[in-house]
Amino acid sequence: MAAEEATLTVRLIRSFEHRNFKPVVYHGVNLHQTVKEFIIFLKQDVPLRTSLPPPLRNYKYDTLKILHQAHKAKTNELVLGLEDDDTLLLKEDRTLKDSGVASETEIAFFCGEDYKRYKANPISSW
Questions:
Q1: Which of 8, 44, 62, 121 is the one with CA 20 to 30 A from 28?
Q2: What family is this protein classified in?
């Protein structure tokens, strides 16, 4: 079976409150790899991207959540939608494809603790 590859946009979220994020496009992502393998890849790749400012490169990202899938509705949230965590948060033991990721999917990469704190009190600082 040939590896199914996709183009994904990963939104690195540094701060929910300050709406501090940056999208990074990845081409040729194997959708048959597990979410955990993709997280490991991102943790190795992000610090090496000199085009990103140091606060984004050196942050403790650990969680992936689907933001938007091609040809489907987008959320009104500017940084990340707070709903549907049970279906949109990616579980590490599943493959990207089994998690609903397809070509042109936009995924958020963030610190899970920050997300829980923001979800409990979703107030922006500006």
A1: 62
A2: Belongs to the UPF0538 family.
